[in-house]
């Protein structure tokens, strides 16, 4: 009888221990799942990319030409500037015609703007390049050159309409370790419409599916 009693106690103890182990493992898994899915949790890399202005980097071994065109706006509507390798900012004042900027192999060009008015389907800024270029950084630098890292609203209709729209061949591609950041949670009319249209080399499926032309 004592042997049977000891056997039952031992079996109960084993079941209790196994149950505790199961609950501990389940708790760890749930904590990991919630942490992974929380959109408010940001890695240091994501924070760093958000503080970087919209940037294109020449991914090739020869010079590339960056093509920028302001359509429908006056230059004062967008106040667009660029900087090569973090140097002096240069204003883009021409409209309706492409501004062609030479970008040496391995160099970067960052864009800044201070938008003052809504866009439309006939008012937009478009950026392209003649050779493969990585794109990363915070797209909001086109709207506010100083406070872009803290912006959470696109504010202006058609803000990024046709930004990387395919034009005479599109070589925009995603970087392997640096992200293109679209941080806005308050979106206005058509702000991302056709933003990546024709970007066959850009591989972020979430962006391509969400912001394609419809």
What do these coordinates show?
- Strand 3 and strand 4 (90-91) form a beta hairpin.
- The strands form 2 sheets. Strands 1, 3, 4, 6, 8, 9 and 10 form a 7-stranded mixed beta sheet that branches. The protein has a 3-stranded antiparallel beta sheet with strand order 5-2-7, with no helix packed on it.
- The protein has 4 helices and 10 strands, in the order H-H-E-E-H-E-E-E-E-E-E-E-E-H.
- It has helices spanning 2-37, 44-50, 75-78, 205-210, and strands at 54-58, 64-71, 81-84, 90-91, 99-103, 108-112, 124-129, 133-138, 172-174, 180-181.
- The chain has 214 residues and is an alpha+beta fold.
- The N and C termini lie far apart (78 Å).
- Residues 2-8, 26-44 and 208-214 have low confidence and may be disordered.
Q: What is this structure, in a nutshell?
A:
Helix content is 25%, strand content 21%. The chain is α+β, with helices and mostly antiparallel strands and 214 residues long.
Radius of gyration: 25 Å
What is the chains' assembly state?
single chain
The coarse overall form would be: globular
Distance N terminus to C terminus? 78 Å
Instruction: Report the helical percentage.
Output: 10-25%
* Unreliable stretches covering 5 or more consecutive residues: 2-8, 26-44, 208-214
Average of the residue pLDDT scores = 79
Largest sheet: 7 strands, mixed
Number of domains: 2
Total strands: the figure is 10
Q: Which structural class best describes the helix and strand composition?
A: alpha+beta
Number of helices: 4
Strand fraction equals 15-25%
SSE pattern: HHEEHEEEEEEEEH
